[in-house]
Amino acid sequence: MNNDLKNNYDFMTSDEIAKSLASKIKIIRKKKFKTQIQFAQHIGMSHGAYARFEKTGQISFSKFINIIQGIGRTEEIAVLFDEKKEVITW
């Protein structure tokens, strides 16, 4: 992917966005937990499921929320749906 578009989710497929988010979460996870196993145990998830998420970006939405809680980034979820943002009407 073009470096100019690397972080522009408007031009990415859903799979590319999922992989990008997984990659960013991996970086954050490594700062707080040395291994995937430690982090998976911390959030009550199997190591296999978490490892698959880091590799593919694929996981259920509820498990994704568990991951976000585990890395201490739940406040960012609220920003996604901030009512103060401009509403686009079609």
Written overview of the protein:
The protein is an all-alpha fold and 90 residues long. The chain has a single domain, classed as lambda repressor-like DNA-binding domains (434 Repressor (Amino-terminal Domain), Orthogonal Bundle), CATH 1.10.260.40. Helix content is 59%, strand content 0%. The longest helix has 19 residues, at 14-32. The chain has 5 helices and no strands.
Topology:
Elements: H1 14-32, H2 36-43, H3 47-56, H4 61-70, H5 75-80
The portion of residues forming beta strands comes to: under 5%
Average per-residue pLDDT, rounded, comes to 88
- Describe the sheet with the most strands: none
State Rg: 15 Å
Instruction: Detail the poorly predicted runs.
Output: none
Q: Give the count of structural domains.
A: 1
Order of helices and strands: HHHHH
CATH-derived topology: 434 Repressor (Amino-terminal Domain)
Question: Could you name the CATH class?
Answer: Mainly Alpha
How many individual β-strands?
Answer: 0
- C-alpha geometry: globular
Proportion of helical residues? 55-70%
Distance between the termini: 30 Å
Name the CATH architecture. Answer: Orthogonal Bundle
Helix segment count? 5
Category from helices, strands and their pairing? mainly alpha
